[in-house]
Amino acid sequence: MAHSWFPTRRTALGAMLASMAAADEFTRRLEDFVLPLGGELGFAMLHVEGGERVVLRGAERFAMFSVSKLPIALAALHAVDTRDLALDQPVRLTPADVRLGPGRNEVAELVGASGRDFPVHELLRRALVDSDSACSDALLRLVGVPAVNERLAALGIRGMRVDRSERELQFDFAGVSHEPPPGGWTLERMNERYRSASRGQRMQALANLARDPRDTTTPDAMADLLLRVHQGRALRPDSNALLRRLLAECQTGAHRLRGRWPAQVPFLHRTGSSGATGGVTAATNDVGMVPLPGGRGHVMLAAFLRNCRGSMAEREAVLAAIGHAVFARYAAGQPA
Q1: Which domains does the chain have, with CATH numbers?
Q2: What's the predicted TM-score (pTM) here?
């Protein structure tokens, strides 16, 4: 009896050590991808069915930027579940609610000079699919910052917090005041305020961001939140199905984690990005849930690039390489 037990225990220990060594080698490979751009990678990967969890700086805090739209949307949908909100409830957006952003601002065009009503379901779609900040901020106003964090705590998520609207975050990131000017905000006034920041203000704001716990998550906490959504534990079935559908339709980050995955594999994700300060981009993020081909289970992924140099294309190529490494690790049906 003792003779058969001891080798079994020794074999299990050997397997555990081998798995740890393989995980260390895997995270070293991921670090190598980031090395040419400087900066740091925060990473968490959880294979749901197999139970394997691989993390890099998993307990460190990383700025979420638009990744925060996920916990905000989740809190709004929880309010729908509790009948505090309705998906068809109209919400008025005015010119003062429009946000800065790259490219065409469709919400600003729809709001115009007189404002427009958006139902909650449209705010959710535009926030999660198009990454529209005005719609996300409208949802945050509806539910309130405390409700978002209370919902995270109720789900057992530790290490993630939401504190500010995206307008406040944008101005804090530039190092300028977000107090409204006399007469209120317009898109032009927001642009003027944002562009008024001196190089010194922007560099100080970048340094402040590294120490600021607000609107941050740990990679571990994000993987845990994704797992709750995947398992249907965060929302009622209809709301959970809507959230998953909107994440699957996300229009941003096509060249990030999913960039080198087979095109037919669905990728449910949310991205986040900051601007660049002195050639350094504070955040280039992508988090999501993905089913492995061939029925090999599901993987929760969270990747945060912090303070990297290089173009958007170069940073996204790093995230694509990380995503491909995950695919290769499980393509054979077991960890490599």
Answers
A1: 25-331 (3.40.710.10)
A2: 0.92
